Amino acid sequence: MEFAFFTENELKCPCCGEMKMDIRFMDRMSGLRICVNEPMPVTSGYRCKKHNKAVGGRPNSAHLIGRAVDINIYHNKVYKMLSHLLTYGLTGVGFKQTGAANHRIIHLDDLEQTENRMRPTVWTY
Ligand SMILES: [Zn+2]
User: Fold this and answer.
1) 64-109, pLDDT tens digit by residue?
2) Ordered domains of the chain (ranges, CATH)
3) What values do phi and psi take at 86, rounded to 5?
4) How far is Cα 27 from Cα 3, in angstroms, rounded to an integer?
5) Considering the entire predicted model, what is its pTM?
6) What distance in angstroms lies between residue 53's CA and the mean position of ligand 1's atoms?
7) What is the β-pairing status of strands 105-109 and 42-44?
8) Which residues are found with C-beta within 5 Å of the ion, ligand 1?
9) What span, in angstroms and rounded, lies between the C-alpha atoms of 21 and 64?
């Protein structure tokens, strides 16, 4: 699998090298990346169960099904990105509260609303 703006190296699970990103999710991310036209380095993409547990991910994390990325984007670039999220079907936005000002991490996913999960929504972690 190859994606224009995202490398296999940054998308694969760091513990086992598996990279089962969802094609529709990656289409959405590519659309967003082109529209916003800012770098979106991925700090976490696909996660196997073991790695997800190791990094404290939720048991039902979108990373486990290749439908989430954490990206290093900050300051006005985040602002620029926010208004385009729904256009590209990105429904979950998590702002990591820790980290240096230029190393802010934002989680993006495209999960649907279910009985137990509100979408679209924004949270901090
Ligand atoms: Zn792994």
Assistant:
1) 999 999 999 999 999 999 999 999 999 999 999 998 888 889 999 9
2) 8-124 (3.30.1380.10)
3) -70, -30
4) 9
5) 0.95
6) 10
7) unpaired
8) 13, 15-16, 48, 51
9) 9
